[in-house]
Specification:
The structure holds two protein chains of two kinds. Chain A is mostly helical. Chain A has helices at about 1-10, 25-30, 35-60, 70-105, 115-125, 125-135, 160-190, 200-230, 245-265, 265-280, 285-300, 315-330, 330-345, 355-375, 380-385, 390-420, 425-450, 465-495. Helix content of chain A is about 65%, strand content about 0%. By secondary structure, chain B is α+β, with helices and mostly antiparallel strands. In chain B, about 40% of the residues lie in helices and about 15% in strands. Chain B is built from eleven helices and ten strands. Chain B has helices at about 1-20, 45-80, 95-125, 165, 260-275, 285-300, 300-305, 325, 330-340, 350-365, 375-385, and strands at about 130-140, 140-150, 155-160, 185-190, 195-200, 205-210, 215, 225, 235-240, 250-255. In chain B, the strands form two sheets. Chain B has a five-stranded mixed β-sheet with strand order 3-2-1-5-8, with no helix packed on it. A five-stranded mixed β-sheet of chain B has the order 4-10-9-6-7. Chain B is elongated and about 95 Å long. The chains are: A mainly alpha, B alpha+beta. At the A-B interface, helix 4, helix 11, helix 12, helix 13 and helix 14 of A face helix 1, helix 2, helix 3, strand 7 and strand 8 of B.
Chain lengths: ~525, ~375
Amino acid sequence: MSTTLDQAHGHADHAHDDHHPHGWRRWLYATNHKDIGTLYLWFSFTMLLTGGVLALGIRAELFKPGLQLFQPEFFNQLTTMHGLIMVFGAIMPAFVGFANWMIPLQIGASDMAFARMNNFSFWLLPPAAILLVSSFLVPGGATAAGWTLYAPLSTQMGIGMDMGIFAMHIMGASSIMGSINIVTTILNMRAPGMTLMKMPMFAWTWLITAYLLIAVMPVLAGAITMTLTDRHFGTSFFNAAGGGDPVMYQHIFWFFGHPEVYIMILPAFGIVSQIIPAFARKPLFGYASMVYATSSIAILSFIVWAHHMFATGMPVTSQLFFMYATMLIAVPTGVKVFNWIATMWQGSMTFESPMLWAIGFIFVFTMGGFTGLICAITPVDIQLQDTYYVVAHFHYVLVAGSLFALFAGFYYWAPKWTGFMYNETRGKIHFWASLITFNVTFFPMHFLGLAGMPRRYADYAAQFTDFNMIASIGAFGFGLSQVYFLFFVVLPSIRGGEKAAANPWDGAEGLEWTVPSPAPFHTFETPPMVK
Amino acid sequence: MNYVKRLTLLSMAAFGLTIFGSASAVNNMDGGPAVHQLNFQAPVTAIAADIYLLHNWMIGICLVIFLAVFGVMFYSILKHRKSLGHKSASFHESATVEIAWTVVPFVIVVLMALPATKTVVAMKDTSNADITIKATGMQWKWGYDYLKGDGEGIAYLSALSTPREQINGVAPKGENYLLEVDHPLVVPVNKKIRIVTTANDVIHAWGVPALGVKQDAIPGFVRDTWFKAEKVGTYRGNCYELCGKEHAFMPIVVNVVSEEDYAKWIVAQKSAMAAKSDDPNKTWTVAELSERGEKVYGANCVACHQANGKGVPGAFPALDGSQMVNGPQDGQVAILLNGKNAMPAWKGTLSDTEIAAVITYTRNNWSNKADDTIIQPAEVLAARK
């Protein structure tokens, strides 16, 4: 094998990049992990902006009490599609994009294990996204049953619901294939000498995440397939009149749904665990305990699902079990936060954009963790269930958590991708603008929720007006910050700028920094040795 | 807390004045949310009070942890920076520390959950209720049936009473905007009220913050919850589970009254119900039925099919010019009784007279000119079999 490679590349060692196909073929037929990573990242950013526009539609309608811009049926489509697009179109594919780009570079592999399946798992996404977004245009509009698609409301929807179900089937298949690829790559293609316990944290968290995905995506597929047959083929899985149970849908959905939230946060933990040591110039504190904490979170995530359903009315023993199990998750999550802070302690810190985003992540994500603890207390949750408090809580962990970590990862690794340094001042503007507008948007929602304002409402009592106005203003600011990111950070740093060194960061360690910037088309054709 | 509240109010006021000017016109709602409310609504049951305390307890603990953890982090950020010449240490492991910060949070978490356990058990204890009321969620209103205890047999529907003009912004918003109903639930003070929830179509949730109650209403199943209000007053809540288009427009209002007032209310309610029940064998004229039907239409149909009978294209079919409405009666009667897709089954909610009335109304209104312009209640009764 190695001789063939040597012959093929022997005459052009100085310019590996010349070997890739050009034009549209390079992308449509892409089998290179870096190209596929780039495709994933652009796809997810497009979906982030799409989902963001829907969110701004919601916030515009909620700026004032009364119905101004949209009728309630369209408002419900907006909330539903915002959720679906952000979860399945923006956050999840973005992490897969990072995995594609960075895992082979981090573990010293030449590419992902299944290059063609990698291509297929990406190219499933655009048709799914088109199916999902174009469902706005069909009679009856897009599905308006909430991103959770609770039965039996989901059986009342028009064809938009079926399009949404198919889109999620396709995206689920894509995720499963991506996960199989990641697991196989990590378990089989690590450079000689890189034992599992020497692996970078990002690869570790993704390995665990990939197992979670393989375990729960089929569960979601099952739930929405049952919805589909209930809708069209006369089954009664979720219809009490036919012997079914609408609450069973919720159990199945959240058995997927809760691990899903960890699917969206564990790789974020991985990214932050790479960045904090690099900018504290100090090794990650408690590497082993980080690995165990991540695994514990993953395992616990399978036994807490019904805390999303306290208001459905379950026996007192179930409520107590799910309350205690949920609170347990705070322990390994706390361990992670303590380890990050111990890594910073006595370090020699600098605060370039990646570090700012990572610290911002810890700070704001932890606030989301606290509100999560508060929601875990069953009696308090009964008051807060389906209010804006919950909206605030999961945006603190999903936006300030997952999205902030993605931005941190972008600033950290983009020099490796593009070969150019981004503009540091602009990175800082992006950070502070996002951090402030994020809090302006979502902090008032805690108060709204405590006061009892229900979520998924197209209209609200006039007493809630001012906090809603503040949230709407913040939301538009947050949206604009991301447009700024695209036009003033991402695009310029692709076109040019200060040349990035192979390792642009003082304290960054890992195999990804041993290859030139930008990373050549083919890397680690001969695996590196890890001591 | 007071300081925070005052500061927030002050900044809010400044904000409101400079940008929106009009925000100060709204007053606190009696039994509902206050303007700029920062915490739970004032509790009026022991459970709601427990929840209030639990939440304060949680906030307290979280705040202490928050200050401790981020105190350390920001101290480190300020002191351990390269620009100050701080050299990095090389420690990166300590089993003792790891064990400590696994065990301590574990203990804290148990301390948080223990006081909640008692409340969970109390919330679920729906035994020995004085009055049992069934709350039925339907798109988009609530039905109340007094099943047991004083007032047994009383049944009525409770729907949003805020006029559409206020929602659409053509009339100024009233003081109880969106949290007012035509027929509130009435219960006596200091009595244990058990609420049994169920639904006709999709899942709804019956929740009133001041009472500390929220329970999903699930079609085909019954669940229960309870409250014992300790103060006379009006308390307002919402449907808390997404139930379709008008989800935001099916509030809950609970009037907690003294025992004497409750007894009076029962008498008044029973006599009103007797007067309202129609003679099922009466033969009506088109004009009589249409007049009655217009009211039924306004209360039940207008949200989807619209006042002009044009529906919402793609979502809710037009009745004006509809083949169904102008064609043979059997089809229309069947759809009203049994529902179809988004159309709910009305056989449980509307009486024979009301169904006959609303069908007659649609057949004679707008541009409709049906062959059979009238249907009698007795014919609906026959179709039910």
